C-alpha cells in the first residue's frame, strides 16, 4: 500500500464522503474511488459500505483505520523532522554570552526561536577572561563576543549588539562623587586585569593599557569572574570599565557606576569555529543579519 493510498483511506474515514475527500486532497473523485477499490482487492474485504445516501466504515475498515492512523502520523512526523533538520531548523544550538548579555540580545534570540521552533536554543555563560575557550572546546556553538576577534580558527559574523562602557568604582572612592569621568582618569587609578587566556588585544578594547595621553594604566588585582571583579572594586583599591548593560543589572550600594565621556562602545558579534559551521549556525547568523536590516 503506497503512502498516498494510506492518506486517501484515512482521509475518507474522517470525511465519509468521496467528493469532500477528493477536494481536501486536491485529487479527482475517481482517483479516490480507484484507490479504495485497489486497497479492498489487495486486502480481500470491503473497507466501506456505500449507499446512495451515505458512506460508512465496515468493521474491517475500522480496524485498519485504527492500526494505520498512529503509524501514518509517525511517518509524517519523521519526514517533517528530517526536512527541518536538513534545512537547519532542528537540533540544538548552544549560544554563549557573558553575564547577562543574553538579555540585551533577547529580541534576536526570540526571532530565531520563532523562525526555527524545532531547534532547541541553549544559553551558556562565557567568562570575560576566557571568551574563546568554550568555542574551541566545543561547549558552545556560537559566542556573542566583543570585538575585535582576530583568530585564524574563528569566524566573526555581523555586529549584533553595541554597549557603552561605564566606570565602576567603590562608593567611597574619590571618583564616586563625580558625574562622569574620562579615559585619562584611569591613569591615576589601578584597574582590575584578567587572570585568564583572553588575548591582550581583546582585553585592550575593554580596558586599555594606556590613556589617550600615553600614560600607562596600572594593573591592580587579578580577577577571573565578574563577581570577583565587583568584590575587588567594592574594596576600593581598583576601578574598572564595565559594560553598561551589565551595570544596569548589578546595581549595588557599595559600587558607583560613572559614565565615561570619551569611551567608544563595545561591538558584539557572533563568533564560531571555522570547523563548527553548520546549518544551524548559518541560520542564526541569517537571523542576526535580517534583524540588523530592520533596525
Describe the protein in words.
α1 crosses α4. A hairpin with a 4-residue loop joins β1 and β2. The mean pLDDT is 90. Strands 3, 4, 5, 6, 7 and 13 form a six-stranded mixed β-sheet that branches. This protein has a three-stranded antiparallel β-sheet with strand order 11-8-12. Strands 1-2 form a two-stranded antiparallel ribbon. The protein is built from eleven helices and 13 strands. The protein folds into three domains: 84 residues, Arc Repressor Mutant, subunit A, CATH 1.10.10.10; 98 residues, Periplasmic binding protein-like II (D-Maltodextrin-Binding Protein, domain 2, 3-Layer(aba) Sandwich); 100 residues, Periplasmic binding protein-like II (D-Maltodextrin-Binding Protein, domain 2, 3-Layer(aba) Sandwich), CATH 3.40.190.10. With 295 residues, it is an alpha/beta fold.
Keywords:
295 residues, Arc Repressor Mutant, subunit A, D-Maltodextrin-Binding Protein, domain 2, 3 domains, six-stranded mixed beta sheet, three-stranded antiparallel beta sheet, 11 helices, 13 strands, 41% helix, transcription, LysR_HTH_N
